[in-house]
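User: Show me sequence and structure for the first protein, then do the same for the second.

Assistant: Starting with the first protein.
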Amino acid sequence: MKVALAQLNYTIGDFESNKVKIINAINRAKADGADMAVFAEEAVSGAPAYGLLDRVTFLEASEDALIEIASFCDDITVIVGLPIMNDCKTFSAAAVIHNRKIIRYVTRKNIYQREDVGFISSGSGSEIVVINGKRIAVVVGEDALCCDEYSSVVDLVVNIHSSKYARQRIEKRYDKLSQFAFQLGADYLTVNLVGGSTDIIYDGSSAVFNSKGEPLALLASFEEDYAVVDLDNARPVEIPYQNKTANVYRAIKLGLSDFFFKNGYRSACLGLSGGIDSAVVAAVAAEVLGPENVHVLLMPSQFSSDHSVDDALEMVRNLGLRHDIVSITDVYTQILDVLSPVFGDDTDFGVTEENIQARIRSVLLMALSNKFGHVLLNTTNKSELALGWYTLYGDSVGMLSVLGDVYKSEVFDIAHWINRDREIIPENIIRKAPSAELRPEQKDTDYLPPYDETDSIIYRMIEERQTLEEIINAGYDPDVVLKIAGMIRKNEPKRFQFCPILRVATSTFGVNRKMPLTSRCRY
């Protein structure tokens, strides 16, 4: 039996484009002699559609597109995902089409993702269909995790999925698929979505495993792909090494690219400080959009070091970015003069004065965005988000956060990856000690240990949900652990107002980890 796997990048609500992609793949599969073509979960509509799934017109448009798709399915079986409505409830379904007829809808039963609850109802679960004499279990989405529900004697499992990317998820998915196939004693095929949808990134990585748990085909990650697999004659292939840094980099590139092109945006702007975070964001944006479509603003103050400006300018030259330099020193002084009657005799330099600088920069960046129609990219990383090391209405501004799910120590890894072939980010930016440069001789390590240690503690708290006692018992300084926990709790109101974040972790601030603003719980 020959099966075509079509891993495609869909856009939510763009039924015409999605339909054409699916039909073209079906025609290609027929030309390649495939008996079956398989597409991802919610392929017809795009995902995740959230509140659109409550709209009858949206669901009708999805089913209208399916009817036209079915008209091209002569002499081939097609399994394709779409949302359907039944009894005033919306389900994520796999439509099974055979010889132009929609012979069955298989609906997803298990809804594990919190953000899907309320938009998708629990359906009847996996079903067995007989095609070309073979018993095929059709499984939608997370029902794949409940293999006991489709463990009767089958020749093939077809799982259409919309699995989001998270760090190390690809290799874990392969391990599970191999295990499921071996346990069931059947070939196991999964087709996953690929592409970005605002903050969500689907990695693709569709695959076929034989009944021994050996991979027969592994489709590309983070890009569209297509393959025809002869299940009766295919030979096993090797699973490639998954480079964590490369995958995170490819994920944020894909997320950024689709955020722009699916929304019709063409150019970006950001503040280029001479620090590592803005350098990485600028490099990614330049690769995705082209350097001519990235406008950076250098905004030195009296506290900025000369080398920061020089480093930023060197990067501008390396990439050919459009840039301007606007000093904020005079504006900062004028604001302090205006506020002097309000502040009175309190002339001490503190957080207030630091935040004024950050907010001046946000005003200038928003002006640049408004004037030229640029999308302002936020450059805050996950470590800073956790600790509150950013200014509300200051460097928190932006329409999209590129690094908000990437720890500071990972940002350095990504910078080295960007420089793997040639120096794009100046080596001095990578080597120098991180600093906000909002006061003389300021360093991030004035307040906490180096980022390797700090990030490890934050990771245990956020990603692994360890208790303070568990982290302290692992050998970390109790005072540092308590300090970090207090900072994370204190800064929840700031995160509550943050922009969408490209998700590359299992626990993303504001989505997987959303805490009440009013609470007396210490942790």
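Switching to the second protein now.
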Amino acid sequence: MPQFDTVIKDGTIVDGTLVPPFRGDIGIKDGKIAKIGKINTNEGAKVLDASGMIVAPGAVDLHAHYDAPLHWDPYCTIGSWHGVTSVTNGNCGFGFAPVHHKDADRSMYSMERNEAIPFDAMKATMPFSWETFPEWMDHIDSLPKGINMIQLVPVTPLVSYVMGGWDQAKSRQPNETEMQEIIRILDESMAVGANGWAAQRLTGYGASVQRDYDGTLMVSDMMSDEFYMQLAKAMGKYDRGTIQYAQNSGAIDEGVEGNRRDMSFGGQLAELAKNPLIFNAVLVTDEKPEVFRTMLSVVDEYNKKGVPLVAHGLTKRLDFRFSFSDEWNLFDNVDAWREATLGTEEERKIKLANPDLRQSMKAEYDRTKQPKALGDIATFICRKVESDEMSKKYRDRMVGDIAREENKHVVDTLLDISAADNWKTEWLTPMRNQNPEYCKELLSHRTVAGFSDGGAHTKFQTLGAYVTDLLTWMVRDTETITLEQAHHHLSYLPAWTAGFRDRGCLREGMAADILVYDLEKLAVKPTEILHDVPPNNWRRVQGADGYRWIMVNGDVTFEDGQSTGALPGKLVRCNQF
């Protein structure tokens, strides 16, 4: 009788721990790695020939929003197509538990704008048969899954639940009794396997592009320093757990000192929690490299003191595609734009043509170049136009060039073209993060690679392809980092940070979450549209080539890019290690 369920034979093993790659075999038994070494083919019930291929640990994605999409997409694509085998959910402090039954719709509305998850899809698939966080954990446990998950306790629903609703939670800070109840629920959640808490705190003028359905700040944005310090202290009694924290409290033109202050506060929280804190996000920008260097210098300062502060680096080459016919929220940091893009499609069309709002938009642009979270509007490209006549005139041209030719303001140019095209024009933002040397510098610190935002903003971005992008761009094409460095930042370091103690590297006794791929054939496929979001919605995706097998807990979930139908993923309850 074969000793192993599966043998991966004769691959080049990159185990995630930074040891050099080596040739060898892997024997898998009962979902775990039972042996790494030399194994005869007759010792495996199934043998996967990995000759000439890389064998590496599955990627661990620490910034996902699959809490809702899991209900209609058990593989949590597009991440799983690109080698993600484990994720954390509850990020940014957004989620669906705990929740009073009367607030079920309100909790879904809170995700509709800030993470661009369609309300109709949530309404059609989420039963809201839970109230408490332990009940939510049982619900997630019961759902079929193609990947593994850790759940963080999201601050916004937690505080709203204790304070009697979203409006009450936005009106004031929790009192002492409420704070004790918040911590009690956190403890209750940790007792059933949650592994920490998560929060977004974007408060400064020009900071928040992730707002509530009505354009107001999220509950987590409005909590005080003292609130977060108390919540961090509550983690100090655990020998496990992590905090996911995003902060931008500075003014638009404050410069690097605001970034230093925000990252330093993350370090203070990590010091109080005595557990890892992952700070979202550190972006590489060619224009101001001093920003990411300042943030990473703070990470280094705290690490030297033994404080586990970890940066989450946005490593994928990034652009966004959008039209004003969709509910576009990433200009929400500017009051006039936020007002103009709130409401139904018909309401938005009227407001975007309002001359007073237009004037406010132009005045803000002239003063600050805002909104510029995605780059200067003048550099946006007219990628797709419904009208054939307009397409000949504007397609693939930059807003600034058109504005100069037509003697218009760039804001008028952007909106006039959109209006003439019934707001269907698709705009493409500039590609960011294209300097491999800067990306190498980003990864030379305690930095987790990735930041997929998986399940969120799916009409606008495809960040879930970050694993393939890093391996092709940074390892194969530019040879800027090594394979062992890439998989360390994709798997081992994020697993350690998140609390996945049983996975993240290829060692005997660890879970068999494994990628087998041909580095030379690895590729991110072109962008396409899939109409697979219920009840009748769509998303933008990018597939992958070059992955021979992707395994989760010892079962093959994808073979040559095709789903096998296996759903071996599980909810990882971190109290059971």
